[in-house]
């Protein structure tokens, strides 16, 4: 997906997420996306089924599902960060080591860290 298409996707996603009170973050390394979504359980499930039907994806992996007391990306309907070497490295590591808790923690912390800059 081209970066201009990603911008349109984020704009449309923000509007829908806001309406559903979903917050989150989307990272793009030029090839793969990594996304964190948070909200009411049913709303997140509904959104995940929309995303699952989206033909722009070739493969979707759910890396983690969990209940949270407080949102970690409360300030964003969908924060977006485009291609960089850091983002590529962190996403690739989670792809290469899907069961690694360290890789997962680094990915999550990168997203939350962007939000708290
Ligand atoms: C990488 C990626 C991330 C997406 N994230 C969201 C999102 O956070 N919120 C959203 O409403 N749509 C998101 N979409 C778009 C959905 O897949 C879908 O096209 C849109 O929600 C409309 O769903 P519908 O066809 O069920 O109406 C994303 C699509 C892609 C490719």
TrEMBL record:
MF annotations from Gene Ontology: blue light photoreceptor activity; FAD binding
Domain BLUF: 1-79
Cross-referenced InterPro entries: Acylphosphatase-like_dom_sf, BLUF_domain
One Pfam family linked to the record: BLUF
Protein name: BLUF domain-containing protein
